[in-house]
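Z., the sequence and structure:
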Amino acid sequence: MLVAERHRKIVDVVNEKLSVRVTELSKIFKVTEETIRRDLEKLEKENLLRRSHGGAVSIQDEQTEVSYTEREITNAAQKRAIAIEAVKLIEPGDQIVLDASTTAWYMAKEMPDLPLTVLTNSIKVAVELSKKEQVRVISTGGMLQPKSLSYVGPLAERSLNMYHVNKAFISCKGVHIDAGLSDSNEWQALLKKQMMFIADQTILLADSTKFGVRTFAQIKEIQNIGRVITDDSIADSYSRALEEKGVQLQIVKI
């Protein structure tokens, strides 16, 4: 395969997967990891992708949201397993906030019918929780994002300011040890930042593909997270880095 052809196909793979590791690209194209790193450096200079720690992320349509139907089938097994573990942290009488992530929706599906108050900006989470008689659901309202079926914007942010919760359960597009948590959509990033602000504790729900990724809009630094729940494909280097930051790590076996 010619170098130019490999470069074109690398960009295609990155745009399709949104983020990909050097090791994976090395296997796909049957070249050394050092060769892939040089390829990514060149492609970043040409503004065709962005390098991340251990791989690369797509810059195609960075601020557009992925549709809910597409997110539901991406890493679904990992997200559901993480959600099941997250639900175990909820106690009767808790007041919690759930974001509009697919993992939060899985949490809503798995959540037992307990006396709880749940604040959310997600239509799908609210509808799922409406089936549980003891759960009181409060929707933020705001500007509707049709692809994610979620509310964002100044009204949603102001409504969050009215409340205080015990626990915030959030997800994001990227988890970078130095750059912190990030999202591809600025509106969602701002809302998640506010969710963390009103919570005593923040639990990050992130499958292993999110680590080493840095996307468009920063949410918060890593040390603002109390606990991370992820799957067992997380690299040892990230596990150690999180522990050094004082973040409690909970790994779910898939």
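The longest strand covers residues 199-205. The chain has a mean pLDDT of 90.

Let me know what you think.
H.
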